[in-house]
C-alpha cells in the first residue's frame, strides 16, 4: 500500500521524501547494501511505485548525490568569500566542502570502507558534481577552455581526501596549498591574472 504522503504530495516532493528515506538507510546499512526493495519498504510504498520516481538503484543514488552536491555547493558559497588571492579561494572552498561532507552522516557514509569506490564512480561521472567544481573555479576568477578539466580534477582530489584523509587538517591544507592550487593556477587558461606575464617572470629569473 502506498504511503499517504506519496498520494497527497506533488511528485517532486514525494521524490524528495524518498531521498530522505534512502539517506537514512545509507547511514544505517551502508550504500552498497541498500536496494530498491529496502527503500520501498522504508518509504511505505510498493517497488512499482518507487520505480515511478527512480527507474533504478543507480538513478536513486545519483539523484541523492546531485541533491546533496547542490546543497554543499550553496553552503560553500556562503562560507567562502570570492575576495582575495584566487588560489586561497580554491583551497578554502575545497576544505569547506570536505569539512561539510565529513560533518554530515548521510554524506560521510559514502566514503566508508566498502562504499568509497561507488562514491568515487558517481562523483567522477556526474555532470552536476563537475559543474560545482567549475563554479568553485569561477568564484576564484578562473576561466577558459581548461576550466572544465580542472574542475573534474578538483573533484577527484576532494573525493580522494574524503576516501583517504590526510594526517590532520593542517596536513590536508598544506597539500592543497602546495600542490593543487598552484597547479590549477598554472594550467588554467585564465592564468594571466594569477601569474606575472611571461616577460616579467623571465626578467625575475635573470
From TrEMBL:
Chain ranges of the HTH tetR-type domain: 12-72
This protein's UniProt keywords: DNA-binding
Organism of origin: Rhodococcus wratislaviensis NBRC 100605
Gene3D superfamilies: Tetracycline Repressor, domain 2 (1.10.357.10)
A molecular-function term among this protein's GO annotations: transcription cis-regulatory region binding
The protein, known as: Putative TetR family transcriptional regulator
Record feature DNA-binding region, as residue ranges: 35-54
Entry-linked InterPro entries: Homeodomain-like_sf, HTH-type_TetR-like_transc_reg, HTH_TetR
